[in-house]
Specification:
Layout (H helix, E strand, L loop, with lengths): L7 H7 L9 H11 L12 H7 L4 H15 L3 H22 L16 E6 L2 E6 L8 E5 L7 E13 L1 H4 L5 E2 L18 E2 L4 E13 L5 H11 L6 H31 L3 H15 L4 H17 L3 E3 L4 H6 L3 E4 L11 E6 L4 E4 L10 E3 L2 E2 L2 H16 L4 E5 L2 E5 L2 H11 L5 H7 L1 E9 L4 E8 L2 E8 L1 H7 E4 L7 H13 L3 E10 L15 E10 L6 H10 L3 E5 L4 H11 L8 E3 H6 L2 H7 L5 E3 L3 H13 L4 E5 L5 H6 L2 E5 L5 H6 L2 E3 L4 H41 L8 H19 L23 H27 L4 H22 L16 H19 L1 H7 L6 H34 L12
Parallel strand pairs: 9-22, 9-25, 19-21, 22-24, 23-24, 25-26, 26-27
Antiparallel strand pairs: 1-2, 1-3, 3-7, 4-5, 4-6, 4-7, 8-27, 10-11, 10-21, 11-12, 12-13, 14-15, 16-17, 17-18, 18-20, 20-21
């Protein structure tokens, strides 16, 4: 029911309510019908489910199957190593996600504990959960609204709805019916909504909805019903795991068919197939992915970005669109006077927020004392014709009352006026409070034995009262209206100030005293200013190929002005409002979201629809927000980013990431770290896959040659989990490359393996396999035992991995152009891997487990020389790709698809 369209009588009738309130019997009956006035609560997070979740990755499934197969084959060492990796990975993931996976519980905190209600003609206080539709509720300054209420009486009632609608200015409430259809909550000025805060005044209304039927309850229901979106990284890991699965299955089938053709006994063939499967599976990848994201979490924390869910680390790096709230995210959520016009000249005011520090300039020059004295008239009126206050608390300035009025006090303080002194010099003796039908507020003051009335309000109302202007004497209304309109187009709230002297015996003021004879002192333009660092952050986003879209509950004019200031849009950019969104279908919205970057006066449903349509376009969407209204979209997007300081608990619980300093630039830095995370995962893959491929190729080559395979399963596990296991973890610590923020976002359809990586993996796999087979065969020809030849092959693989780890630090940059100690962990991991390999070759117990023998010095030299060939081959490949890239950048001609990544 659109209660805001109903008259008071119709609303009371429709809700079966009366001015004297319900009887206790009626209230109890309705409580049974509608339920308690509270939001549904869910059970606590199951630690067991979080633990089980750590074993749901496709790569983990492959490892579990491998563990089962090795156990059946009684290869218990192999089983033990695989299980150890699985358990370690699960522990890391569990510890990272336990707190992050606690479901949203904060909506209940938006409810007040008590409410004042009229029942049987008596006003009394009850627990707010006992409210029912039809109850008559009293509202007062400082309290939270306990339910959705159709107002039936107001006295200077203003309610701050920023957490629900995103609008930074408190809404003045009325009781008159509104005849327009499809109004969003922010435009329903005769309604008060659960969870919002009464800034000042009093009100009375009839409860129209409670619990889950309220706007807040609908948001809670939407959040609960939205499925968590699988992140791009999770999708890519899933696809990559399927690729690995096909590779494992294909390798086993090829080896099996080849073995049968060559007449190899089935028992031996089965062991060879298991060895090939172990070689093909990058056992260390799941833990490296987890470690890489954990490192990203730590780095992001240094930029005040707290990640709640591991996969979200990388998601930021692949983001193509950021849908940002305006109030408190792009702006400071602190109203500030930015400009003053005295009827002749404009004056710029520096500083922002409620800190009274700043200067006033005219044409870039500071004002003289005489000029300041004249300008103080307009500022004094703004300070004293005012019901708000500002005071210091814990070293910070805090406001009490309307933020717009507080901004007027701050602007006056910037020119040296002190609130206490001014109130003492101009004793208040009467007030006409602001009402929307009047359009102004007036105060009567006693000063120097006389009486003077100050008035502030909408320029069109104030100019009707004025007969002259203080600065020009003649009142040039046309010019003043033009200036005020220009300020409004720039997103400012414009207030005019005037004064009039009254007889000294005037005891009070009435509306009859406001009909004329006033002197215009000037007008002030007030705005919620953008955060200073946001402009650079949005510029950086554009350079990184990320589109920023503003989705706000504020007015279209204000949103567009802020959008221009911060660089989201230019002049003449299209704007979609909530009212327009109500009238268009999802298909029409789908067509518009690509070209619209400002959405104003939106409701929670609108924001959710915008996000969903952007995702339909294949965009990777991040949503920022701080209010209750942001929660559904935060949960539905690929990544939700909540503000830590101004953000509601609801927004934080629905989000994947929390920015602790409410700074948009922190999101920008987090994007960089997200890209570094994905780059490092790719570097690990580029390191692991060629060595796995080389293991399979070397097995196939030796089988075709009629030779024993060059390793046993335990040796392959040693290679995959210990020697290269140290280096792949080290690659997770790689610093970001210089161009990481100059690249366009990756295509959401692009997998972990790019065309370049596939080509290089094949190239490197062939080089490594040929080198291993060469040393293996050479050792056998020299009369060495099979165990010794396999030791040569395993050690050759280990050295190939050393050099391939350095190759993997960049896809195109030469290894010789990189600082070898920029990632000291990689250097030390190679030292540790070499020591571990020495232990396997020279410690008797390890020799027995892994079937190895000691090597001679000349054999070590031979291994190092052969392994170094992979560096030479990859350097040639990188040089060719750099040449192609330079030609591509200098020529408009298209590049072959296969080399598009190079």
């Amino acid at each position: 029911m659109e209660w805001y369209r109903q008259t008071i009588d119709d609303a009371l009738k429709g809700l079966q309510a009366r001015a004297a309130g319900l009887t206790e019997e009626d209230a109890q009956s309705r409580l049974e019908q509608f339920g308690l006035n509270k939001l549904p609560e869910e059970g606590g997070v199951s630690r067991f489910k979080i633990a089980i979740h750590q074993f749901t990755s496709p790569l983990i499934y492959i490892l579990l199957i491998s563990a089962i197969v090795t156990f059946v084959l009684r290869e218990f060492v192999d089983t033990g190593v695989i299980m150890a990796i699985l358990i370690l990975n699960a522990i890391i993931g569990y510890l990272q996600e336990y707190k992050a996976e606690e479901s949203m519980r904060a909506l209940k905190h938006m409810l007040v504990a008590k409410a004042r209600v009229i029942r049987e003609g008596v006003e009394k206080e009850i627990v707010s959960e006992q409210l029912v539709p039809g109850d008559i509720v009293a509202l007062s300054s400082g309290g939270r609204v306990p339910a959705d209420i159709r107002l039936v009486g107001t006295t200077e009632l203003r309610i701050e709805e920023a957490a629900l609608t995103g609008e930074s200015v408190p809404v003045e409430k009325t009781t008159q019916p509104l005849d327009e259809a499809n109004l969003g909550p922010g435009d329903q000025r005769n309604m008060a909504f659960m969870g919002t805060i009464v800034v000042n005044g009093r009100g009375r209304g009839v409860v129209a909805a409670t619990g889950v039927q309220t706007i807040l309850g609908q948001i809670a229901r939407d959040v609960k019903g939205i499925a968590t979106v699988e992140t791009p990284l999770q999708q890519k890991i899933g696809r990559f795991a399927k690729l690995i699965g096909f590779l494992v299955l294909g390798s086993a089938m090829i080896i099996g068919l080849l073995g049968l053709f060559l007449g190899i006994p089935v028992a031996e063939l089965f062991k060879i197939a298991v060895a090939a499967a172990v070689a093909a599976i990058p056992e260390g990848l799941p833990i490296v992915v987890t470690v890489t994201m954990a490192i990203g979490i730590r780095r992001m924390a240094q930029w005040n970005a707290i990640i709640r869910k591991l996969p979200s680390v990388e998601t930021l790096g692949s983001t193509t669109v950021i849908c940002s709230d305006k109030t408190g995210t792009l702006t400071k959520n602190e109203m500030t006077v930015k400009i003053i016009f005295d009827g002749e000249h404009s004056y710029e005011v520096t500083g922002s927020g409620y800190e009274p520090h700043g200067d006033v300039f005219h044409e870039w020059d500071l004002l003289s004392d005489d000029e300041l004295a004249e300008l103080r008239y307009v500022l004094r009126i703004g300070m004293l014709c005012n019901e708000s206050s500002i005071y210091q608390k814990d070293g910070r300035y805090t406001i009490e009352g309307d933020p717009t009025e507080a901004a007027l006090i701050v602007s006056a303080m910037k020119v040296g006026l002190r609130l206490e002194d001014e109130r003492q010099a101009y004793q208040l003796s009467g007030t006409i409070p602001f009402e929307s039908h009047r359009g102004y507020m007036a105060t009567l003051h006693e000063h120097d034995g006389g009486k003077i009335v100050f008035v502030k309000g909408a320029p069109e109302k104030i100019l009707e009262m004025c007969s002259e202007c203080r600065s020009t004497k003649a009142l040039r209304a046309g010019k003043i209206f033009a200036v005020a309109d220009r300020y409004a187009q720039d997103g400012m709230r414009v207030l005019a100030m005037a004064y009039k002297e009254l007889p000294a015996d005037t005891a009070a003021i009435t509306e009859r005293d406001m009909t004329g004879g006033f002197v215009l002192a000037g007008i002030q333009g007030i705005i919620d200013p953008p955060r200073p660092e946001v402009i650079e952050a949005i510029k950086g986003c554009k350079e990184a190929g990320i589109r920023v879209v503003m989705v706000t509950g504020d007015h279209a004019v204000t949103a567009t002005a802020i959008g221009r200031m911060v660089g989201i849009v230019g002049e003449g950019a299209p704007v979609l409002t909530g009212r327009e969104l109500e009238t268009i279908s999802d298909e029409e919205l789908f067509a518009k979201v690509r070209d619209t970057s400002i959405f104003a006066r939106v409701s929670p449903d609108h924001k959710l629809r915008i996000v969903q349509q952007l995702m339909r376009h294949g965009e990777v969407v991040a949503v920022t927000g701080d209010g209750v209204n942001d929660a559904p979209a935060l949960k539905a997007a690929h990544i939700g980013v909540a503000m830590g300081i101004s953000g509601t608990d609801v927004a934080k619980e629905a989000a994947d990431m929390v920015v602790t300093d409410d700074n948009f630039s922190s999101i920008f830095h987090a994007v960089r770290e997200g890209r570094v995370v994905f780059d490092n995962i790719r570097k690990v893959v580029l390191f692991l896959i060629p060595t796995g491929l080389a293991s399979i190729l070397s097995i196939l080559i030796t089988m075709i040659m009629g030779l024993p395979i060059p390793y046993v399963a335990a040796q392959l596990l040693w290679i995959n989990l210990v020697t290269n296991g140290l280096q792949d973890v080290a690659l997770a610590f790689e610093p970001g490359e210089q161009d990481v923020l100059r690249r366009k976002p990756r295509s959401p359809r692009e997998g972990i393996m790019s065309a370049l990586m596939l080509q290089r993996s094949l190239l490197v796999g062939i080089v490594i396999s040929l080198g291993i087979v060469w040393n293996f065969c050479s050792s056998l020809r020299d009369g060495s035992s099979l165990e010794h030849a396999r030791t040569m092959a395993v050690t050759t693989m280990v050295f190939f991995q050393f050099f391939q780890a350095w190759n993997s630090r960049s896809e195109v940059k030469s290894v010789f152009a990189m600082n070898p100690l920029s990632n000291p962990f990689l250097f030390y991991s190679m030292v540790a891997a070499l020591l571990a390999q020495l232990a396997v070759l020279y410690v008797p117990a390890l020799q027995w487990i892994f079937r190895t023998t000691p090597l001679a010095l000349e054999e070590w030299v031979k291994i190092a020389v052969v392994a170094f060939t992979v560096v030479a081959v990859v350097e040639i490949d990188k040089a060719l790709r750099r040449t192609i890239r330079r030609k591509r950048d200098s020529s408009p001609g298209p590049l072959p698809e296969s080399l598009s990544r190079g």
